[in-house]
Each structure stands twice: as structure tokens, then as C-alpha cells.
Design a protein that fits this description.
The chain is of the alpha+beta class. It is built from 20 helices and twelve strands.
């Protein structure tokens, strides 16, 4: 292993040790940051930011997710990790300018009327600057860190570390598919041309939607390492949490609808549901940002998801559900488990849509899903697998319910889901649903012309 890879491996190890990685990721057992006093590591948010904030690569992506998934993580650790959402340590202006000019082939002053030298957001792969185009449009320009690709490729080449991590979580699971899918999705994030195409797909689909806003992509001002989109001004997630609960319920419903309508309408997931990717606009709208970590699904893969819902929710059958998860590769065939054991293991993931009653999604619920997902003591753990098509689905589920849990969002999620499920096509059950139905009808009428 080269010195640079050894150095990065040591940095990653120290970061996760200082944050109590097992506490953060695997069940929040008994360890907390106070334990680190014995190691002499300062665990304050400022110290973590100063020491590790400039890290790039897979480590930063994992830290980003850890900052919002589990509310039982001590607050000082969450504060430290939250810098990876949209406030990581960025690069100097001269470096950023060189990236933009090299990618777009012209000097900054020839491309933009104005360009703020100080980024307003910085995360694990790139930082974002506010700018004004020659035609006067206010835009957000995402600039990839020059060393981001090398850092991520280096991390992914160190497959032994990734494999060790996954084997710790799932000691008996086949991790080949999991490793391949994670690697493929993270590498795609480095390609801003691919991200622009995905964002265009979402932009065109959700055009004129009553509550979902997708920023327009300026393709002529974008390239492999620069992505220019419409600037969105609104409340951050932390500020939105101060809104009245009725508004938070509406926000939660919009996020829920966006996730599952994208899955069933576009067969594509925006696979990165974290607070830094939402801007809360006036009139209850939400702008959804960052489409780098995305996944499209084939009709056959969609059929797998639908069949599981059918046998778990629509027409419950432990026997048929067990047959389905075996066929889909989630469970080894002939595992010495009863149909009821298999059914009950997967039941928590469907809890919000099991009954036609309002349900408040709490942090306790989202935490329980996280613990359940990484429970190595479960009788099923050694018989489970996560096929490639389910990796992003699982990340979405955990991330979505972590977000809704912080909002304490309440709705009759079953009725909302039935509006979206193409195999039910239920009537609108909320005001947002009725607005969405009018949007769908207008869009379909336009497409028929």
C-alpha cells in the first residue's frame, strides 16, 4: 500500500475512533464520546472540524450520512459530523477558479457577470458558489475538489477496509453485491455530466408541480467537474424545523411523495436524502438538490418491489412473502426459519403503510429501523443478502424516515402511498394530493397533444 493510501486509512480510522464509530453506525450501544477521554482525543465539534474537515472520499460520505441517521448519537458528535452535510472545509478560491476555467474553457469573467469567491456550501466532493450569468440569472455553481476523484478512487481501491466494515455489520452476509453497488453509485457522483442528465430528468418530470421544485440545469455552464443550476433561496432544514407542526407535516408529506413518486413514476431514486439537500421555499414548496447519488431501476426490478408490497401490505401472506424475498435474493433459500419469522423481520420497514390510520413518524421509529438493519444478533442476519437493486432502496428508507422523524411528520401514509402506487391508484386524501392530481392531469393532457 502506498504512503498516501496508508495515511488516508489512518485518518479514517482516527476519525471513526474519535466519533465512536460503532456507536454511530451499528447500534449506538454503550459507547459515547465521553469514552474517548481515555484516548486523549478532543471530541468537540471545532476540533473534529479542524482535524478532519478537509477529508474527501468515502469516509466523508459515510460521516455525512451518520450526522442525521441516528438521533441517539450524542449532540456534540452530531454537531461535529453535520459539517460534512454542507459546511465541510472547502478549497481556496484560486483552486476553485482554476477548476471552473479549465472545465468551461474560458476565464471566469468571460462566463459570468458575477462570481462569489467564497462558497456558501462545501461538502464531501465539492463546494458551491453563488454567481450571476451574463443574462442576469442567479445561479449556484458546484465545483468539484481537484483531489476528490483521487481520494474516492483510493478509498474504493482499498476494498479490504470496505469489506471489513461490511462484514462487521453483516458477518455472514454475501457482501459482493453491496460493495459493487456502493462503489458504482459513489463513482457516479464524480461525473457532473451524469448528474446534470439525472437532474434534467427530474426537472422535466416535476415541472409545474405544486410543492416539488427541481432547480434548472444550465448545461452550457456545466461540465465534468462543474455543475451550474438555478440558485434556490429559502430556509435550511434546521430553520424549517422551527416552523409550526402543521407546516412540518406538509413538508414531510411532500418529501414522502417526492421519494415514492420518483420511484414509481420515473423508476429513479435521488439516493441522497439528507438535510443539506433540501431548501424550504415559500408557500410550502421544497427544492430538492444534488442528484449525483441516484439509481434507476428496470421494470423487472420494479416488479420485485411491487410483489413484496403486495404480499406484505395489500394481501398479506407470510408464505408468499418469503417466497418473494428468496426469489429476489434477499434471503438464502432453505434457511431454517419459519415463514412468520421472515415476514416479521421485514415488517418494520412497512409499518408506516400497514394501516389506514394517521401515524406520526418519530425519531424512536427511525432509530429502531437503523438498529434493526444492523442487528447482528438477529436469527436472520446470517441468511440475509442485499442485492444491488436493494442497496439504494435501503439507504433511502433509512434516510427518509430519519428526516421525517426529526420533523415528527404525521399523515395517513397508507392513503398517500395508495395514491402513488400504480397498482392501486387511490383517490387523493390530502390537499397536497388534490393539487398533485390536478398537476398530473394537466401534464398528461399536455403529453397527449
Amino acid at each position: 500500500m502506498s504512503r498516501s493510501r496508508i495515511k488516508r486509512a489512518l485518518q479514517s480510522t482516527r476519525l471513526f475512533a474519535s466519533l465512536g464509530a460503532r456507536h454511530l453506525f451499528f447500534k449506538a450501544r454503550s459507547r459515547n464520546l465521553a469514552d474517548s477521554k481515555s484516548t486523549g482525543i478532543d471530541q468537540t465539534s471545532q476540533r473534529i472540524r479542524e482535524k478532519y474537515g478537509a477529508m474527501r472520499g468515502v469516509t466523508a460520505k459515510v460521516a455525512q450520512m451518520a450526522s442525521y441517521l441516528d438521533s441517539r448519537v450524542p449532540q456534540d458528535a452530531r454537531d461535529a459530523l453535520s459539517q460534512f452535510q454542507d459546511n465541510a472545509v472547502g478549497i481556496e478560491w484560486n483552486e476553485a477558479r482554476q477548476v471552473v476555467e479549465k472545465d468551461l474553457g474560458r476565464k471566469i469573467k468571460e462566463i459570468f457577470k458575477e462570481f462569489d469567491e467564497t462558497p456558501f456550501a462545501a461538502a464531501s466532493i465539492g463546494q458551491v458558489h453563488r454567481a450571476v450569468t451574463k443574462t442576469g440569472d442567479i445561479v449556484a455553481v458546484k465545483v468539484q475538489y481537484p483531489e476528490a476523484r483521487e481520494a474516492i478512487v483510493t478509498d474504493l481501491k482499498n476494498s479490504q477496509s470496505l469489506a471489513s466494515l461490511l462484514r462487521w455489520i453483516f458477518p455472514s452476509m454475501e457482501i459482493g453485491d453491496l460493495t459493487k453497488e456502493i462503489s458504482a453509485r459513489i463513482l457516479e457522483e464524480l461525473d457532473y455530466v451524469h448528474e446534470a442528465s439525472v437532474q434534467d430528468l427530474f426537472y422535466n418530470y416535476y415541472l409545474e408541480h405544486p410543492t416539488v421544485v427541481i432547480p434548472k440545469v444550465y448545461r452550457e455552464l456545466s461540465g465534468p467537474t462543474v455543475l451550474t443550476t438555478k440558485f434556490m433561496k429559502g430556509l435550511s432544514f434546521s430553520d424549517a424545523l422551527k416552523e409550526p407542526q402543521s407546516q412540518l407535516d406538509n413538508y414531510g408529506e411532500t418529501i414522502f411523495r417526492f421519494v415514492f413518486r420518483s420511484l414509481y413514476g420515473l423508476r429513479t431514486f435521488n439516493g441522497d436524502p439528507h438535510p443539506g439537500n433540501y431548501v424550504f421555499l415559500p408557500h410550502g414548496q421544497i427544492a430538492f438538490l444534488d442528484f449525483g447519488f441516484s439509481r434507476s431501476f428496470s421494470p423487472a426490478e420494479m416488479s420485485e418491489f411491487i410483489e413484496m408490497i403486495h404480499h406484505m401490505v395489500i394481501d398479506p401472506s407470510p408464505k408468499k412473502f418469503r417466497e418473494t424475498v428468496e426469489q429476489n435474493g434477499l434471503l438464502r433459500s432453505n434457511a431454517p426459519l419459519s415463514d412468520e419469522e421472515v415476514y416479521n423481520y421485514f415488517l418494520p420497514y412497512y409499518q408506516v403503510v400497514l394501516e389506514h390510520n394517521p401515524m406520526t413518524i418519530t425519531q424512536e421509529y427511525s432509530n429502531s429501523l437503523l438498529s434493526h438493519s444492523f442487528d447482528r444478533k438477529s436469527s436472520l442476519s446470517k441468511y440475509l443478502n442485499v442485492p444491488q437493486s436493494f442497496v439504494v432502496i435501503q439507504r433511502i428508507n433509512l434516510g427518509l424516515y430519519a428526516i421525517l422523524g426529526q420533523m415528527k411528520a404525521t399523515s395517513n401514509w397508507r392513503k398517500v402511498a395508495e395514491e402513488i402506487w400504480p397498482f392501486v391508484q387511490g383517490e387523493p386524501s390530502t390537499e397536497i394530493g388534490r393539487e398533485e392530481q390536478r398537476w398530473l392531469q394537466a401534464r398528461d393532457a399536455l403529453n397527449d397533444k
